């Protein structure tokens, strides 16, 4: 019997300022599609409709609408930046489709027309600051790409630092994709913060780390760079010294030593070769396709409403472990990990949450309690303070 074909849109920028992230995501999605299409037990094949918005704001909604109206795609897997997600969502909602968003973001959003498989602040920024503040200090210098992600993560970070008795030394933004970062390095050298929180994206992040390494060469005691969105991708092309010593939080690193990830990497090695390093962008897009396919099979239809009911009612095995989707917020429960980058461009994981953390996109539960910053340190006690982040 001929298998039914289900068209699915893949909407990632594989050219432009953050092209490397998009290429990884497309590779991960296609790896999952290949597995689905090779599995005779699944009564359908996925036919990908791949579009490249090239990182240009005006392209996203038009391409999403065309995929839905002209190609019959009921599911759009894609977008990386928050502005592209927000540009696409109205078209998704208008046509009754479903967006699968799998990148870390700033929270403060929930749509019936989206499944959020990327981490939100209580799954990336809060665990990161719980580690960093008591060990490195409470005077961050914040740098970010000049759009929603940079603004909002900076805002939440400022609240955390100030509530913990610290202060933001400086808060600077550069245009998305800009590699002109020398002024940031000069200001960091002048103001001597305790650490740098980088909310830079794509080429901007790589350029900043290269320039910062020159400062570390002059000042060996320069503070660490920490981030919620720094992956192995941004370390590519850097010298071994520029790659190492950065702290990042993520639900996935290539070095994650779990049974699920070992099995996943073994399968991917057969397809891509044993030298293929996997990244959170690759894995998150893979998860999107894999979960979607299993939900369509269970629902016996690709109708978004039926798929959404299945997705929010069961556990799914994934490379990061079992994943559940909250039926109220449509966000994934994810297990945060914190890693330190090494000279090979990998992350050595030194802390993992005991288990998956339920997403709290509006920080209602997470910020109603004191942030665990280790009780006391050189800056004094932190217990009893609560955050007042509002939107």
TrEMBL record:
Q: Name one GO molecular function term.
A: amide binding
Source species, domain of life: Bacteria
Q: Identify the InterPro entries for this entry.
A: AmiC_PBP1, Leu_Ile_Val-bd, Peripla_BP_I
Pfam families documented for this protein:
Peripla_BP_5
SUPFAM superfamilies this protein is in? Answer: Periplasmic binding protein-like I (SSF53822)
User: A biological process (GO) annotation for this entry?
Assistant: amino acid transport
Give me the segments passing through the membrane.
none
Q: What is this protein called?
A: Transporter substrate-binding protein
Q: Which organism is it from?
A: Rhizobium terricola
């Amino acid at each position: 019997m001929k298998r039914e074909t289900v068209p699915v849109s893949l909407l990632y920028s594989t050219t432009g300022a953050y092209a490397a992230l998009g290429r990884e995501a497309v590779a991960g999605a296609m790896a999952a599609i290949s597995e689905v299409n090779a599995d005779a037990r699944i009564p359908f094949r996925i036919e990908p409709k791949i579009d490249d918005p090239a990182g240009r704001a005006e392209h996203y909604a038009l391409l999403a609408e065309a995929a839905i109206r002209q190609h019959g795609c009921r599911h759009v897997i894609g977008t990386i930046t928050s502005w592209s997600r927000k540009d696409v969502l109205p078209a998704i909602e208008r046509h009754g489709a479903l967006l699968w968003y799998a990148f870390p973001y700033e929270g403060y959003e929930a749509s019936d027309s989206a499944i959020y498989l990327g981490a939100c602040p209580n799954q990336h920024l809060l665990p990161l600051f719980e580690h960093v503040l008591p060990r490195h200090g409470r005077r961050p210098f914040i740098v970010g790409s000049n759009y929603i992600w940079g603004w909002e993560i900076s805002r939440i970070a400022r609240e955390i630092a100030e509530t913990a008795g610290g202060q933001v030394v400086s808060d600077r933004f550069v245009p998305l994709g800009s590699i002109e970062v020398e002024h940031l390095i000069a200001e960091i050298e002048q103001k001597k913060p305790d650490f740098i929180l980088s909310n830079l994206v794509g080429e901007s992040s790589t350029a900043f780390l290269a320039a910062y390494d020159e400062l570390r060469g002059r000042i060996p005691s320069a503070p660490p760079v920490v981030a919620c969105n720094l992956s192995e991708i941004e370390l590519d092309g850097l010298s071994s010294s520029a790659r190492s010593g950065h702290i990042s939080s993520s639900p996935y690193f290539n070095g994650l030593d779990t049974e699920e990830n070992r099995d996943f990497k073994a399968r991917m090695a057969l397809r891509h070769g044993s030298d293929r390093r996997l990244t959170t962008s690759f894995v998150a897009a893979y998860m999107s396709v894999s979960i979607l396919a299993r939900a369509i099979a269970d629902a016996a239809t690709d109708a978004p409403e039926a798929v959404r009911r299945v997705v929010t009612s069961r556990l799914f095995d994934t490379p990061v472990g079992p994943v559940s989707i909250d039926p109220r917020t449509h966000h994934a429960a994810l297990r945060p990990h914190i890693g330190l980058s090494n000279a090979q461009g990998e992350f050595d994981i030194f802390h993992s949450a005991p288990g998956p953390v339920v997403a709290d996109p509006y920080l209602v539960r997470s910020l109603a309690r004191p942030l665990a910053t280790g009780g006391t340190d050189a800056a004094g006690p932190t217990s009893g303070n609560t955050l007042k982040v509002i939107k």
